[in-house]
Amino acid sequence: MAVRWARSGAWVLVLLATASLADGWDPGSRATAQGSITNTRHNMTMSYLGASAIFMSGVRNDYGAVCVYCHTPHGANSQIDAPLWNRTINNGTYIIYDRPTTLMRPIGQPGPSSLTCLSCHDGTIAIDSVLNMPGSGWEPTLSGATNNETGISNQSFLGLWKAAGGIGPPNTGPPLGTHRTLGPELGNGTTTETCAQCHNGAFTNGPGSFRAFMLGTDLRNDHPVGVLYPDTYTPAADFYEPTVRQPGRMAIFDTNGNGRADPDEVRLYDVGGGYQVECASCHDPHGVPSGGAGSRFNPSFLRVNNGIGGNHAGTAGITSDGASALCLTCHVK
Ligand code: HEC
Ligand code: HEC
Ligand code: HEC
Ligand code: HEC
Ligand code: HEC
Predict the structure, then answer these.
(1) pLDDT tens sequence across 129-173
(2) Residue range 118-131, pLDDT digits in tens
(3) What is the pLDDT of residue 14?
(4) Which is it for the CA torsion 38, 43, 45, 49, positive or negative?
């Protein structure tokens, strides 16, 4: 506790030094969003912040590697149909989209390819809540502790990670800090035990506001997920027909015709009940180059750039696919 509060106080002094901002599409971000997920906000080590990453030391474990916050090569979460998933997931229920829809079909709970994202963005699960922590020769389960596959997080298990402050190699430094969630929907300054304590938009030239990224468990104000895509198409249809369909897996808008689901192609997920729209239909959490390999990523981890580029401040190097290009991949409008 003492360490954390000392740091919380210390950042006030550093804010002036961090006021010069990178030329990002989001001018408040220091992540260049280019080349690799390492240079995006999905790098939970925040290594792109350099020494300033220490502000996050007391609030999440720094595992020193990018992929481990989401994936593990062995011992992945068996409760979710997602690639080598290393995170605990929320097995509770979400409040789902409740407005009338064109097709007038019931909307289900989020599917696996949304639960992955919601395992951070719903604000119920700690950012560092993984099943397997990294470390050569260091096996936290030897101490008899394991993490659950579902549920908010197991704070005592996560507390076994003793390099949380970057002090010494794993298991040598003192246990440090807490294991925080992003925060509830539109998290504000009252949520002291979440990332929103600082990332609440209250600080000019300070920690960026993450309020827009905190979706919470009430999804009524978000584009529907867990929602079936049409399976018949007529000349008057409201939806475009995917070009490739693999029942039980995915349907793809295969723009380059190679028969594969490339990162820049919108897709629908089928885990048994038909093709559905999920978070990962529109977003790739690793970042998608907007203008081919090496270019700046589409903002907001979108698979298709929905019109950002050119005339916005800080969008140098971002290629737009045209206004509403993402929406118009599916919707005939
Ligand atoms: C004690 C205050 C504080 C808390 C709590 C906090 N942060 Fe930060 N965070 C900062 C500060 C200050 C910066 C800006 C550092 C800089 O720009 O040099 C920052 C920067 C970031 C950035 C980089 C933003 C960008 O685009 O440049 C990310 C990502 C981030 N924090 C994530 C988190 C997460 C996730 C949590 C919760 C686990 C968290 N932070 C909790 C103070 C905090
Ligand atoms: C913030 C979470 C997150 C991080 C960090 C992350 N991934 Fe992923 N990854 C995902 C999700 C979610 C999917 C599933 C996407 C989907 O549903 O199609 C995925 C899918 C994959 C796939 C399957 C093919 C694909 O692209 O969909 C591979 C391979 C992969 N990730 C590798 C990596 C590697 C390597 C790293 C580290 C450099 C990494 N990921 C970091 C979330 C993450
Ligand atoms: C390991 C936790 C974690 C997972 C899993 C995760 N995110 Fe994030 N995401 C974050 C954090 C932390 C940030 C940076 C702070 C913020 O913007 O809230 C972020 C930022 C974002 C942003 C804003 C990016 C920007 O450039 O400003 C988007 C969009 C996003 N995530 C979407 C997703 C989607 C979609 C998925 C699933 C495919 C996902 N995230 C999975 C933690 C996660
Ligand atoms: C139908 C496509 C679509 C789906 C499905 C979708 N998103 Fe998004 N998302 C977008 C677009 C487009 C933006 C960019 C909005 C903007 O630029 O203001 C965005 C923005 C975001 C942001 C950044 C905050 C913001 O308002 O810009 C986050 C975080 C995010 N999405 C997470 C998710 C998560 C988590 C899910 C699943 C529960 C999801 N998205 C489902 C299209 C989608
Ligand atoms: C991956 C395909 C896909 C993409 C991309 C997509 N949508 Fe949707 N959208 C759907 C489906 C399917 C529904 C649910 C339709 C239903 O059940 O009637 C839906 C529902 C909606 C609804 C609710 C009203 C209705 O008719 O159901 C709105 C509004 C909407 N989408 C707008 C957008 C916007 C704006 C974008 C771009 C940011 C977008 N959509 C991108 C597939 C998509």
Answers:
(1) 998 888 654 555 555 567 778 777 777 788 777 654 444 445 455
(2) 999 999 999 999 98
(3) 40
(4) positive
Report the C-alpha gap between 62 and 54 in whole angstroms: 10
Structure tokens at 91: 């097995």
Contact present, 34 and 68 (Cβ < 8 Å)? no
Q: Is the CB of 262 under 6 A from ligand 4?
A: no
Q: CA-CA distance, 109 to 121, in Å (whole number)?
A: 16
Residue nearest to atom 13 of ligand 3 (CA): 41
Q: Map tokens 């050569």 to a residue.
A: 136
Residues, the chain: 333
Which distant-in-sequence residues (6+ apart) come within 8 Å of 193 by Cβ? 178, 180
Distance CA 253, CA 265 (A): 6
- How far is residue 37 from each of residues 42, 52, 123, 301, measured CA to CA in Å? 6, 19, 21, 10
> What is the rounded CA–CA span in Å between residue 173 and residue 160?
11
213 lines ligand 3 (CB under 6 A): yes
140 half-sphere exposure, CB direction, 13 A CA radius: 22
Atom nearest to 263 CA in ligand 2: 26
Return the closest-CA partner of residue 243 out of 114, 332, 333, 329: 329
Residue 166 and residue 57: Cα distance in Å, rounded?
A: 7
Q: With contact defined as beta carbons under 8 Å apart, do 15 and 288 qualify? A: no
Residue 219 Cα to ligand 1 middle (Å): 25
Kindly state if the Cβ of 250 falls inside 6 Å of ligand 4.
no
